[in-house]
Amino acid sequence: MTGNPELIAESPYIWRARRGDHRHRLICFPHAGAGAGAYADWASLVPPEVELAAVQLPGRQNRIAEAPVTEVGPLVKVLTQALRPVMDGPFSFFGHSGGAVLAFELARALHAKGGPQPSGLFLSAQSAPGTAGRVMQLHDLSDDDLAAEVVRLGGIEPEIARDEDVMDALLPTLRADFDLWEHHRIATGPRLNTPITVMSGVSDPRAPLDTLEGWRDQTDGDFTLRLYEGGHFYFLHDPAELIQDISQVLLESDRAGSVS
Predict the structure, then answer these.
(1) Which residues form the catalytic set?
(2) pTM of the complete model
(3) Three-state helix/strand/coil letters over the chain
(4) CATH architecture of 8-130+190-259
(5) I need a labelling partner for 197 at 20 to 30 A (CA). Which of 84, 92, 142, 220 fits?
(6) Residues of the chain with pLDDT under 50
């Protein structure tokens, strides 16, 4: 397959940019309030050997009419089945902020069930388990304050925040997602075997630098910490460096696997 495929909806939970000759699949989990389309630009940036897929959750984009998720456990259970079509070969997970927690919880559930295992976990802008209480809680802010805080973090452009119709549609899902992830606590459990790469902006108030190393305790595999210039949405406007780093790890892992 030639050219750069588009990220399109294939099922309620899966958007995919199909590449018939790919060697690895990168499955992405979006941040609070965002949908699978947050990764649309990535499809043209990953190397030809990598196929991009993204998870779509209820309450956004083509699923805007559905109620947002309110419990993590049932969501993870659904995803272990719903994502099977994109876990049929070598794959890795990337998640940003709350999406990183979802990616980790899904990897843990697959590990517990003896299901397919990701070759790598890329966890972006998310503090390690056991560091709760270090960041400002957003779910109970007023609409105006919540919008202002997300703009300050760089997740919404100021001109979008000034559009009342757009914000009226966005804020319920955004608030529900913050409510979900700010109340969720990752339980103590068996360590994974999957390598974990933690990625974060050096000035991210939502993921202080001293809260990141704790992810090392969640795996018996390799652990890497990569820091980038910027804040919570350090990659949003120019993801090329991040994608290059992820792709390098994916392809090196595949080469190592083929040799062994």
Answers:
(1) 97
(2) 0.94
(3) CCCCCCCEECCCCEEEECCCCCCEEEEEECCCCCCHHHHHHHHHCCCCCEEEEEECCCCCHHHCCCCCCCCHHHHHHHHHHHCHHHCCCCEEEEEECHHHHHHHHHHHHHHHHCCCCCCCEEEECCCCCCCCCCCCCCCCCCHHHHHHHHHHHCCCCHHHHCCHHHHHHHHHHHHHHHHHHHHCCCCCCCCECCCEEEEEECCCCCCCHHHCHHHHHHECCCEEEEEECCCCCCCCCCCHHHHHHHHHHHHHHHHHHHHC
(4) 3-Layer(aba) Sandwich (3.40)
(5) 84
(6) 1-2, 259-260
